[in-house]
């Protein structure tokens, strides 16, 4: 978690 | 993707369909906070900037487009089609008291200090508190239409289901997203009072009324 553009949730 | 996440997203979708259905069938947006709905547009637009440069999945893409467009559609309904049914004198929570601190927090507590990441963080914090104008409005009027409470219940359940999703992801993938988790717990916590009345009164067939 916390990696950039690793936001796979809505 | 896991069952908690999927059910959470479906609850989120359901909440939007319930809200649009309420407006169309009653031809009114009475009892709905325009400010809360406007905050959701800001939340989705600032969070989904990655639509322009990052592909996650078709599911992710379609959902993002849906949340942005449906939230704009709701604002359109409130601002134009059913405008006379909206009473701004009841919708008086100051949104700058929410947006300002959320932006400041996003500048301080973020994963990376760059534009898109700060916008993403801001959207997470803002979503956590975006329901305040709506709850404030219900507190003032002391009541809510049953369909409005179904909308709010679905919206609260959506974020509540993300919590077991994070626990599941911690054990299966080892991923932890502290910003989303802390904000998500706060967001869910704001619904506890509402949930109590919803489950003990509305689901027992009574009207949603707050003690005077």
UniProtKB/TrEMBL annotation, chain B:
Entry's family note? Belongs to the ERD2 family.
* Gene Ontology BP term (one): protein retention in ER lumen
Record protein name field: ER lumen protein-retaining receptor
Membrane-topology descriptor: Multi-pass membrane protein
Q: Name one GO cellular component term.
A: endoplasmic reticulum membrane
Keyword check for Protein transport, yes or no.
yes
List the subcellular locations. Endoplasmic reticulum membrane
Alphabetized GO MF terms? ER retention sequence binding
Keywords of the record: Endoplasmic reticulum, ER-Golgi transport, Membrane, Protein transport, Receptor, Transmembrane, Transmembrane helix, Transport
Q: What does the organism's lineage look like at the top?
A: Eukaryota, Fungi, Dikarya, Basidiomycota, Agaricomycotina
The record lists the membrane-crossing segments as 52-76, 149-167, 179-199
PROSITE patterns with a match to the protein in the record: ER_LUMEN_RECEPTOR_1 (PS00951)
Q: Report if keyword Aminoacyl-tRNA synthetase is assigned.
A: no
Organism, scientific name: Scleroderma citrinum Foug A
């Amino acid at each position: 978690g916390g990696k950039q553009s690793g936001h796979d949730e809505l | 993707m896991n069952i908690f996440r999927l059910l959470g997203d479906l609850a989120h979708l359901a909440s939007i369909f319930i809200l649009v259905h309420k407006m169309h069938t009653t031809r009114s947006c009475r009892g709905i906070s325009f400010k809360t709905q406007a905050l959701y547009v800001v939340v989705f637009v600032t969070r989904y900037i990655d639509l322009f440069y990052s592909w996650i999945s078709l599911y992710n893409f379609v959902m993002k487009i849906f949340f942005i467009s449906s939230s704009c559609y709701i604002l359109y309904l409130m601002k134009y089609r059913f405008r006379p049914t909206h009473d701004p004198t009841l919708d008086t929570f100051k949104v700058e008291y929410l947006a300002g601190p959320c932006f400041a927090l996003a500048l301080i507590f973020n994963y990376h200090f760059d534009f898109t990441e700060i916008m993403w963080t801001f959207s997470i914090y803002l979503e956590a508190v975006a329901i305040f104008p709506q709850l404030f409005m219900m507190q003032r009027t002391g009541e809510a239409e049953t369909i409005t409470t179904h909308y709010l219940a679905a919206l609260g359940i959506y974020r509540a289901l993300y919590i077991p999703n994070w626990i599941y992801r911690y054990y299966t993938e080892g991923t932890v997203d502290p910003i989303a988790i802390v904000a998500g717990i706060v967001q869910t916590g704001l619904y506890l009072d509402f949930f109590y009345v919803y489950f003990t009164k509305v689901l027992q067939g009574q009207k949603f009324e707050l003690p005077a």
